[in-house]
Design brief:
It is a single chain. This protein is an alpha/beta fold. The protein has one domain: Beta Barrel (Barwin-like endoglucanases), CATH 2.40.40. The chain has helices at residues 2-12, 15-18, 107-113; strands at 36-42, 64-66, 75-80, 86-93, 103-105, 121-127. The longest helix has 11 residues, at 2-12.
Length: 128
């Protein structure tokens, strides 16, 4: 009699309660590839006012960057991996020309990232 009641209750139980479904994967809000880690440095102030490879004048107070391959006008979110500070910069120049480095930042961007004292740091970047 007890087994009939158990069997009857199992049959009447909604299917969703009987079957354990794995949790649905959560989709990331980020679109595109994951951030890349690279070594960044910053321009010396002596370059202030000089013409960049894009034809714009370099402004040490602007949030700009130099990259060897990314198109001019590309916006990057650059994050200091040691302190978590981030800035958004505009690629408007070519460089750096030291092969171990991948990104040259304006002094304003470097100051906002907290990298002035170190000079060269590891950062992540992603196109925004």
């Amino acid at each position: 009699m007890v087994t009939r009641v158990v069997l009857l209750s199992l049959l009447l139980m909604p299917l969703s309660l009987r079957v354990q479904h794995p949790p649905k994967p959560v989709l990331s809000e980020r679109i595109g590839p994951p951030p890349k880690v690279m070594v960044a440095s910053y321009y010396h102030r002596k370059f202030h006012g000089r013409i960049t490879a894009s034809g714009q004048r370099f402004d040490r107070r602007a949030f700009t960057a130099a990259h060897r391959e990314l198109p001019f006008g590309t916006r990057l979110k650059v994050t200091n991996i040691f302190n978590g500070k981030s800035v958004e910069v505009l690629v408007n120049d070519r460089g750096p020309f030291i092969l171990s480095r991948s990104l040259d930042l304006s002094p304003a961007a470097a100051l906002a990232l907290g990298m002035i004292k170190q000079g060269v740091i590891d950062v992540t970047w992603e196109i925004v």
